[in-house]
Structure formats: structure tokens, C-alpha cells
Fold these 2 entries.
Entry 1:
Amino acid sequence: MSSQSQLSVLHKFKGILFSNMSSEELLNSLDSFDAREDDVFLVSYPKSGTHWIAEIIESIPNARITLTSSIELGDISKLEELKMYSQRRVIPTHLCYDLLPANIKQKQCKIIYIIRNPKDTAVSLFHYYRDNPNLPYIETWSAFFELFLRGEVVYGSWFDHVLSWEEHRNDKNILIIFYEEMKKDFPKSLKKITTFLEINVNDSEINKIARKTSFSEMKNNSVKENFDPNHTVCALTSDRNLVFRKGVVGDWINYFTSKQKRVFDELFTEKMKHSQLARFLEE
Ligand code: A3P
């Protein structure tokens, strides 16, 4: 499927594909978004673990935050809706750095950017494309693989997205967190998040948060809960059941042929040659 034929469910804004869940009027009006200094932005390329981090932040005792839906989800009324929250807002988005509303940068709001190995991200996004009616149905993994390589998917090229944020990795208001590190050493990642947000947590609280935000717990709760669409943290669906698939590191191996791995690795080496983060992302 070419990017042209994807346009029945997607549309382009400033050269990047968005789903029809993000109206053009809203995207156009984002620069008038009025950020507050204590806002926290939860940023990611789709399928990098956004819901996981969101649940972690919501589970921190005494965080006194309100998790909103994605800033780019909805229509023109979105910016008014965001004004109604009186508590500290945690606002998710999949926007690349350049599309982030200017006001957020000026006010140096805290930003957590989560990154996941691109091969696992691609496989996860492939399934999302198949399961999510708001995204085009792509018949085969090999067809999706080609689109992903060319960046002809929602939110554009994984490489451009990550590199746009990496440029700002040393900004003091930006924290970069890796999905794989969260899986390997949850308490360490959690400490990074709470230190960044200036909230104290003790060891027993860390254990409680780890249990509450484990993949199995979140997957089970998503089935049980009467889902509140205002709590979607991804601008691509309001159905939480679509989010929890496998939740593992390295599932790509079940999809990539050896040729696809070679092609992908070559592109990765080329695109990420100046990246300081690349070494955390290779398998
Ligand atoms: P998979 O499709 O590989 O299973 P996002 O929240 O950005 O949409 O990312 C979704 C991906 O994160 C899915 O990956 C999902 O299963 C995984 N995920 C969600 N919650 C998780 C958790 N608590 N632990 C580990 N992975 C989780």
C-alpha cells in the first residue's frame, strides 16, 4: 500500500502522516496551546511504551497529577478542554520535537521521552495497524516493513522522530527513558522518573508500583475496566484493549527475515551514525 492509498484513514500535516483522530484544525491550532510551567509531557513514537509510563506516573502516591488524553487527539475544542484541569497536567503526545507547540519549549515544561528498540516498535505498530480501525489495514508484515523503512507510517519515520528528540537530550527539562531498561531494571527507571518529577518514593511504594504496572496486571485491568475514552494516552485509539499485546523485548525476531534484518541494520547504522542513543537500541 502506498502512502497515497493510506490517505483514506490518514492525512498529512506538515509532511507527516496523522490519523483522522487528529483533526487538521486541531493540529493547526496547537501553536496557540497555553502551556503551564508545571505541565509534564509524555512523548513517544507510537508503540514505545507510552501507556506503561502513563500508568507508572498515575500510580505514584502523592503525585497530584491528572493524566489527560493526547494533545493531538480530537478536534478544535481540545485546547479548551485542556484548560479545565486544575491539577498538574500530564499530557501525552506522539509529536516530533519540531511539531511540539512553541509555548511548551519556551516554558521549559518537563518532558519524558520514551524510546524503544525500533525493530520491536515496528512489529508492535504492524499489529496495531491490523487491529486498530483508525489505521489502514496492511495485509502482510513485508508490506508494512517497507512502509516503516520509508517512514510512510503514522508520525513518520522512527529515525527522524528519535533524532529530533535526541538533539535535545541534554536540555535539563528532558528525560529520556528506554523501554528495554524499564524491563531490565524497573526500580532504576522508576527512580529516574520520580527524581525528575521531584517526587519521593520509598522501596515499598516502588514494589507496589511495579506490581500495579506489570504487563499482566495492566492487560487484565484493561479488560475489566469500563474504559474512559478521556484516558486514552495514544492519539490513535480510544480502545485500551488494543494496546496490550505481548509486552516483551525481542519479539522482532519472530517477524524479520534475515534479509530484512540486514537491510534494517544497514539503515540504522547510516541514520544513527551520530547518535549517542543508538548503542542502547541495538537488540
Ligand atoms: P507490544 O505490541 O510489543 O506488545 P504504547 O503504549 O506506546 O502504545 O506501546 C504499546 C506497547 O507497549 C505494546 O507492545 C504493549 O504490549 C507494551 N506495553 C504496554 N504496557 C506494558 C507493560 N506494563 N509492560 C511492558 N510492555 C507494555
Entry 2:
Amino acid sequence: MVKLTETRLLRQQCYINGEWQSAAAEATFPVTNPADGAVLAEVPDMGTEEVRAAVGAAQAAWSGWRGRTAGDRAAVLRRWYDLIMANQEDLAALMTAEQGKPLGESRGEIAYAASFVEWFAEEGKRIYGDTIPAHRADTRIVVIKAPVGVCAAITPWNFPSAMITRKAAPALAAGCTMVVKPAGQTPLSALALAELADQAGIPPGVFNVVTGDSAVIGKALTDDPRVRKLSFTGSTETGKLLMRACAGTVKKISLELGGNAPFIVFDDADLDRAVEGAVSCKYRNSGQTCVCANRILVQDAVYDAFVGKFTAAVKSLKVADGFTEGAEQGPLIDMKAVEKSERLIRDALDKGATLLLGGKRHALGGTFFEPTILGNAVPAMRIAAEETFGPVAPVFRFRTETAAVDLANDTPYGLAAYFYSRDLGRVWRVAESLEYGMVGINTGIISTAAAPFGGIKESGIGREGSHYGIDEYVEIKYLCMGDV
Ligand code: ADP
């Protein structure tokens, strides 16, 4: 097992213009381990001027970077990918230390994060233009694609590496440059990626990481007219705030926000597969992902059978420090997250839910929480409307297919939805009726670099991953050629 102190990738300065820099007056803030509260490192608390300098560096680096061939950029990105994979163990250890997720999940996230770099290194070579039959005989219409320019990325703590590469890889592949502000809870993963970017030969200014106060850095980035695009992953509340802030300079935006995923089990489902899917979908990362099942909806006839099997499966999950062999549920990110789970459970129990499993803080103490299942959940409970972001699964009962779809769509969110059924007609009907950007059918895991990830309604704007993901970082430029 690699311990944090042994990692070669621990960096406690910001990466700006290819240099490691401290904040003015050496201001720092601590990074802690959510498993025990221990301080792991101190990283810079950067101010407005330093963020402006990072944007300036990104602006200055842009013309050189966009002037390279796509093949050159791909070769550099490919080296970054190779280095990330070669350092998978160290990166995973850093992640488990600062984020808490089990080491196995951290290794998985590093491979997932790297996969975006590999994917977009290739995809950058395929940013094709278009020719269009013209409206006049002496005219030609050509469409070319141009990189957007300096991009800002603001990323969350639940996927400290993948949420960065999912933005940076398409941006860099398309010829953009980037300033990343990682979440304050998990900056070490971001800084380690910067170290590897440096080793890969990504030129100074093309990829920058600044740490510090969210509001200060967020304002510096969104106020700056040189930043042409913001890509944000985080809460809907912060997303709305940033969307407003980007209006001042009409920036392009990609937002990947909160979800309230329904997980529907129909009476013709393979129940064992549905249970397996529900456990991985709900309890991955201790329930702290925006595509985690938030509401489990089960058809009347199979409700009792599903609940019995589901409860038995969840009971066997091993709650432990992420570095412990076989750990499946790490700590929650902070005490606020614990209190939110407690508040939602209390509200549900007050409104008639039955406690089937867990329900309280775990005996390990700190921010460890028992995997919890609530039966007889109903829409009036807050847990039906709010994104839980914790290991709490409310199970709802429904009678008909229409009732399930209505219940599933009764939310302002529209990120991921899941359902289990073996009836082909029902599969099509329900898949088309669910108002979500992504639908998992007979599977609880949908994320891959090859597919378009993103939401509708208040879950966001734009797509990440797949060939659609690179569109977010290019502008369409129309050339009208007369006098031909
Ligand atoms: P969470 O509640 O899951 O931490 P947030 O939306 O608050 O979700 O955080 C996601 C990212 O947005 C983090 O990097 C966080 O630091 C950043 N963030 C939070 N508030 C602001 C803000 N006012 N301006 C810019 N970034 C912010």
C-alpha cells in the first residue's frame, strides 16, 4: 500500500505558466484526510492577481498551441496519458488520502481519468469541417472549426481527477488552453496531474492549476474577458451562480450539475441483476456522485422480493478507511455531508418511512456513515426532491408503468435515470419517456469516455466525453468565398 508521504507526486504549490508558484505572502490552506481529519498538506490560497496571471499565461500560450498540428498535440496528450497510467498507484493513493474513496475505486478513477486523455488525443485529429453547396454560382461556403481560446474549469471533489481530464483533454486536443480550479477538498490530485502534464511536455501556460477560495477565483475567472469558456461540474446552485457571472462577458458554458436519478425496477426485471445494479449505482463513492441512484422505484409485485435481496446485499458492504484491504464504503467528504444524510433520514422517518438498514453515523466515527435503506418512501419526503449525495437509498413503491415514469420525471433535474426490464416494448417506451440526458437500461453504471455524459433541465448544459465532447471547445467559423 502506498502511503501519502511516500508519493512522488505530492505538490504543495500551484502550477502556473509551467512553474510551481506559492501565493503572495505564502498564504495557504490545509488539505485534510476525511477518514481521520489529519492534515495532509498545505496548498496556496491564490488571490485575484495570481489568477489573472494564470489567465494571461494561458492567453499567451494559446497561439503557439493552436498553431500546432492536431497530430503534435495528440502526441503530447498521449504522453500525458502514459504518465498518468504509469503513476496510477501514486495518484490513487493521493486520491484516497484527500477524498476518502476506497483505494480500488481510486485506481478505477485514475484509469477512467486517463481514458479521457487517450480518447481526446485521438479525437482531436478528427475535428472535421464542412463544405456546403452555395447559394450563388460564384460563391463557395466552407465551415472550419476553431478552438474557443482560454477555458476555465471549476471541478468538484467527488471525482478529483476524472472531472479535470474530462474537460482538459478535449480542450487541449482542440487547441484551447486552460486554467483549472479544483475543489478545495481535493487539490492534490489536480496538482499531481499538473506535474505529469509538465513531464509530458505540455508547454508552459497551456495547462494551469490554481487553488484557493472558490468565490475569489470564480469571480476572477468569470470577470476576465480573456476567458472565453467556463466548464463547471458541481452543484446546481453554484452552476446557476456561475452562469449568471458568465453573462457579463457572454462566455460559452458547459455545466454538469446535480441530479435526482430514479432507478426503476419493473416486475419483469431480472431481480438479481437489478439488485447488483442498484448497489453499485447507489453506493459507489459512498453515494457521492451526481449519477448515483437517488430514488429507487420498485413495482408492487416485486417490491418485497427486491427489498429483501437489496437489504441483504447492502448489509454486506464493508465500511472502512479507504486504505483498508477490501474497503467498499469510505468516509463521507465532511461533517456537512453527514448532517445532510441525517436530516434527510429524520424527515423521511417523520413522514412514515421504515428504516430497513443503517440510519446513523458509523461506529468508526468521524464522517463514516452506515449504508442506509428506507422503505415505503413517498414523494412528500425531502429525500424524493433533494440530491442526497450520501449512502441513503429510499425505496418507493409504484403500480403501473405510467406511474413510474411520472414519478421519475417529477423533478427539476434531468441527469441520469436507470431502469430494469426485459420487455422490449417497455424498454423503448420508458427510455423515450424519461426526461433525462442519460438512461441506463439493465445497468447501473454508464460512464465511459466513449459516450456523451450530460444532463437536461436543471442538471446542465452540454456534453462531456465522446465525439460530442470536443464540440464544446470549438467554434464554428463560416467562410464565404466570393468571386470564384
Ligand atoms: P459541493 O457542494 O459538492 O462542494 P459546489 O458546487 O459547491 O459543490 O462545488 C463545486 C466546485 O465549485 C468546487 O470547486 C467549489 O470550490 C466551486 N465553487 C463553489 N462555490 C463557488 C463560487 N461561488 N464560485 C466559483 N466556484 C465555486
